[in-house]
Design a protein that fits this description.
Layout (H helix, E strand, L loop, with lengths): L1 E2 H4 E8 L4 E8 L2 H10 L4 H8 L7 E5 L4 E7 L19 H4 L2 E2 L1
Antiparallel strand pairs: 1-6, 2-3, 3-5, 4-5
């Protein structure tokens, strides 16, 4: 077992405009990417659970040649709203870092 951060060289989140968040998960090597894909732990459904995004609004891309996974979801609160606690979307990746991969 490993945590996601141990298999990657970068896990980040950021705004993709004021109404969307994008997550970039970049792997150290193909072995790590394939381990994560085989585990099924990192999925569109996980983003629904963690961030309350509707499944039909989760865009989940595997970029195998780049050793990366990219996910885009609607922001729970738009950037700059009075209830927004992360204007740039840079802290939303936190729950992914310690995700256990079996």
């Amino acid at each position: 077992m490993a945590e996601l951060w141990q298999l990657t060289k970068l896990i980040r989140s950021k705004n993709a405009g004021p109404f969307k968040l994008t997550f970039d998960i970049m792997f150290r090597n193909a072995k790590g990417l394939h381990a994560v894909l085989k585990s099924g732990r990192l999925s569109a459904e996980l983003f629904c659970q963690l961030y309350g995004a509707p499944l039909d609004k989760v865009q989940f891309f595997v970029l195998e040649s780049l050793l990366a996974i990219k996910v885009t979801i609607p922001r729970p609160v738009f950037s700059g709203d009075l209830n927004d606690n992360d204007v740039y979307g840079g802290q939303f990746h936190g729950p992914l870092v310690r995700l256990v991969i079996e």
